[in-house]
Amino acid sequence: MTQISDAKKGILTDEMKHVAKIEGVSEDFILRSVANGTIVIPGNVNRDIDAAGIGAGLRTKVNATVGTSTDIVNFDEEVEKAQIAIDNGADCLMELSIGGDLDVIRNRVLDMSPLPVGSVPVYQAAIESIRRDGSVVYMTEDDLFNTIEKQAKDGIDFMAIHSSINIETLTRLKRQGRVTGLVSRGGSFMSGWIVENEKENPLYENFDYVLEIAKEHDVVLSLANGMRAGSIADSTDRAQIQELIILGELIDRSREAGVQCMIEGPGHIPINEIPTNVMIQKKMCSNAPFYMLGPIVCDVAPGYDHIVSAIGAASSAKAGADFICYVTPAEH
């Protein structure tokens, strides 16, 4: 059973009771909000963690990212970063490694973290395809789904899933054009795969299979925003809105299947467009929790993106974002 399926049956779980207590709200409010999908509680059935609620009416949560790169592979350092984030009040972690043994570092973070841990499965599927065959375009559908299932079994609590990058959104992007193109790593992996293989995105075409895996382990789907802008010039454009339409449809399917779900976005946007982006996301995605990546509110401060994104994140929280994420200069 999942938190949302229990809530729809009127079952108040221990996790819901815990969230109600630490947030200072009624248990009935949590029950109703989880049932209608406006609050999610990440917590894989294979892990025992401190439950955190994300969504409307709750404190805005902060996510901290850790992970190796292709240049620096130091597992101890990543675990130390995770511990520092935990000690300083992070609500969730995301393990985003692309260097070294990806299974080992993921499980080390899972083992040490009392917080919900997220991941981006397409990173591992793509990196292993590049190592094996030389290019992400040789990644198979089995590579994608086997990775999602493996990470779910390992205990990952929420996953960024790139299901909304599809032929339709790419067609609109090509027709419109952009100054800075695609900047999402996962979005670039999937768009390159679609174009080269002349096939639909398996994560979109077989979204029911994604839902099946997520439901079995009660993994929260963090539906990724692969079309997010990489510069102010591209903010809130047609490609981003087209993807948001797809995301809204996937939210409906997730809730019907008994799977918890939130939405990611939107990248680089000027500060005056933040309230608009939050409002549009909430309207088009049935008030699903909104996970803001950044946003980066200006393009003229390279090396200081930790400050620029902190401004964007604070403004987003004020406008109604439910989940914000730190950005470091080195990462960005």
SSE order and pairing:
Layout: H1 3-8, H2 14-23, H3 27-36, E1 39-40, E2 54-55, E3 61-66, H4 75-87, E4 92-95, H5 102-112, E5 117-119, H6 121-133, H7 141-154, E6 158-161, H8 167-176, H9 185-197, H10 202-205, H11 207-217, E7 220-223, H12 238-257, E8 261-268, H13 274-284, E9 290-296, H14 305-319, E10 323-325
Parallel strand pairs: 3-4, 3-10, 4-5, 5-6, 6-7, 7-8, 8-9, 9-10
Antiparallel strand pairs: 1-2
Helix pairs in contact: 2-3, 4-5, 6-7, 7-11, 8-12, 11-12, 13-14
Name the CATH superfamily classification. Radical SAM ThiC family, central domain
Proportion of residues in extended strands: 5-15%
Kindly name the structural category: alpha/beta
Q: Tell me, rounded to a whole number, the average pLDDT.
A: 95
Query: What share of the residues lie within helices?
Result: 40-55%
Largest beta-sheet details: 8 strands, parallel, barrel
* Count of separate structural domains: 1
> What multimeric state do the chains show?
single chain
CATH classification, class level: Alpha Beta
The rounded Rg comes to: 18 Å
Strand segment count: 10
